[in-house]
Every structure is written in C-alpha cells, then in structure tokens.
Write a structure and sequence with these properties.
With about 325 residues, the protein is α/β, with parallel strands linked by helices. It is about 40% helix and about 15% strand. Bound molecules: uridine-diphosphate-N-acetylglucosamine.
C-alpha cells in the first residue's frame, strides 16, 4: 500500500500537517521521524491512522524502502533554529543537507509522485525591500539559512535532471499549538506564551524592533496540501513563500499578548543574536496565484488560539 509520507511528522508543524491530510481524506499517513524534537504525543488523536517509523533521514537504507511508490512526500524533517545551527553546526548540516539529499534521492529512485519541501524564509537574509519576493537573490546569514537554501536547490535540480516533481515552500516563522517551548532554541512565540502564562518577562534579543511574518500553523498545513495538488507544469522545481503577508515587531507582539491576557509586564532586553534577520515579511502573491494560498487566521486570532492551547496543555 502506498501512503502519503510526512518526514518530521511527529513535530509541531508536521503533526499539524498529518491531521490536515487525514481531514482532507487521506486514509492513512506514514510518518518518518527520529523523535529528536518530535513527539509521538503530538499525534495522539490520530495515532490509529498513522504508521510511525522512528528512523532518521540520515539513514538512506532505512528511508528508501519507506518512500518507494509514495504519491507524495512532505519533507519537513530538519534540525531547525538559526542559533542551534551556529552552536551545533555538524548535526544541523548532516540532517538538513545530507538528510534532505537522501530524501530527494530516495524519492527519485522510488518513483515518488511529488516532494513538497519545507524551505525557510531565512534564505532571504536581510533585504533592502519588503515584502520579500521569490525573485530576490537569496542571502543566507546563518548555517541554517544556507542549509535550507541548499535543499531548495536540490529540489529544483531533482526536478530538472531527474524528472522528480518537487516544490519548495519557504515557511515564515510558523507558530501555533504544540510548538515546544522548553529548549533555548524554541521559537520566540512559544517562549512568549509560557512567559505570559507564568507572568515572567521574556528576554528580547536586541531592541525588540526586529519584525516577523508570523504564520499560523494550520494555514501552513493547508498550503502544503495545496502545493501537493497544484499543476506540475506550473509549480514543479519552483519555490514559493509560505507566509501570512503581515509583519509584527517583537515589542508589539509582546504588547499584543499582554493585552489579550490583561496584564502589563515589561520585557527584558539582551544582546542581539548572531545570524538574526532584522525584518521578515512574505509577498504571498505567487502562492495565492499558483497554489490558491488563502490564510484563514489573522495574527491576533492565531495568538488567541495558541495561548488557549498553552494554557490548557503546558503545565510547566
Ligand atoms: C528563522 C526563520 C524561520 C524558520 C526558523 C526555524 C527568519 C526570518 N525566520 O526564524 O522561517 O522557520 O528560523 O528555526 O530567518 N528572540 C528573542 N527572544 C527569544 C527568542 C527569540 O528576542 O527568547 C528573537 C530572535 O532573536 C529573532 C526572533 O525572536 O529576532 C525570532 O526568533 P525565532 O523564533 O528563533 O525564529 P527566527 O530565527 O526568526
């Protein structure tokens, strides 16, 4: 039986995609995840419809038979985080570049229908113009940004040289339920959520005036599914922004969260972080035109939903 595959499917974004695929009519979904940062608990409600293989994408021999004949492979497995790629460059490189190469190679050799690759907005680096459009020259500022860009290029070359259908989606600071707040490398909004619920000030790196296009996880999951169905002649080998299209500074984001919660907590400030991009905002017009991208959640609505999830689910 050939199933849809999600690498990294036990992670925060991957598990949201698995739930969305099942809701969209997939009978079963196969998840490949080494459970390094993913958790089986993220799949709890859908566990009976998921085949979970605890294998590492660095292990070609283990993943190749699993990918064989799959109609679609959503490749989300990665070691995320800009600062982690600076403090731990070797595993970050091995998973994000070598592991990604393994996925494309196994997909091409196994006759996979299409690979949908989770690329990153970090590939742009600092651009003079906002919003950032796909035609801008990439300018990676960190190992993570570079690694994710290499995966895009591999996808494009696998399309042109090996006849594999591929598409890359540059995720823009995805947030939502199940984002793990417990690591120093955790996404900033997961850290904000726990600080707020514990009535602690967050530490903003730099002046807090850096801005992000925070994108709600369910909108990203829907876009991944749309990318798997878009006409090959239009999208294969291409890269699209997967953002919401807005832009909020960290200072205003923390203020907004405090407003939702009805508290007033001043943030603390620390030194700027190496490799940090100053401003990030997606031009979503190509994804709207070619993929039918239609984000449903405003930033405020996403924040409210995420905060409620943390309130009821995280007890530390
Ligand atoms: C980057 C990518 C994003 C990718 C993510 C994967 C950009 C613009 N975005 O996110 O697409 O999905 O890597 O890891 O490159 N911060 C604080 N205090 C904290 C934590 C973070 O001030 O406690 C700041 C960071 O310095 C940064 C912002 O918050 O300016 C966002 O940080 P983070 O959530 O780690 O994501 P990015 O590095 O922006």
């Amino acid at each position: 039986m050939s199933n849809i595959i999600v690498t990294g499917g036990a992670g925060f974004i991957g598990s949201a995609l698995v739930r969305a695929l099942l809701a969209d009519g997939a009978g079963r979904v196969t998840v490949i995840d080494n459970l390094l940062s993913g958790k089986e608990a993220n799949l709890a409600e859908v566990r009976s419809r998921v085949d979970l293989h605890t294998v590492d994408i660095r292990d070609y021999a283990a993943i190749a038979p699993l990918l064989k004949g799959a109609p679609a492979v959503f490749h989300l497995a990665a070691i995320p985080s800009v600062p982690r790629s600076i403090s731990e460059p070797v595993p970050s490189h091995e998973v994000n570049i070598d592991g990604t190469f393994n996925v494309f190679r196994a997909a091409a050799e196994g006759g996979v229908g299409r690979v949908i690759y989770a690329a990153s907005s970090s590939a742009y680096g600092d651009t003079e113009v906002l919003p950032k459009t796909e035609s801008m020259a990439p300018n990676p500022k960190s190992p993570y940004a570079l690694q994710k860009l290499v995966g895009e290029y591999y996808g494009s070359v696998y399309a042109s040289c090996f006849g594999l259908e591929t598409i890359a989606l540059r995720f823009f600071n995805v947030f939502g339920p199940r984002q793990d707040p417990s690591s120093p490398y955790s996404g900033v909004l997961s850290i904000f959520m726990t600080c707020l619920l514990e009535r602690r000030p967050p530490t903003l790196f730099g002046d807090g005036e850096q801005s992000r296009d925070f994108t709600y996880v369910e909108d990203v999951a829907q876009l991944c599914i749309k990318a798997s169905k878009a006409p090959s002649a239009v999208v294969s080998g291409k890269t699209y922004n997967a953002g919401n299209g807005g832009r909020f500074t960290l200072n205003e984001t923390w203020r907004t969260l405090c407003g939702i919660e009805g508290v007033d907590i001043a943030p603390q400030y620390g030194p700027p972080r190496a490799g940090d991009v100053r401003h990030s905002q997606a031009d979503t017009s190509a994804a709207i035109r070619d993929l039918g991208h239609a984000p449903r959640f405003t930033f405020q609505e996403g924040l409210r939903r995420t905060l409620e999830w943390y309130r009821h689910s995280v007890s530390a």
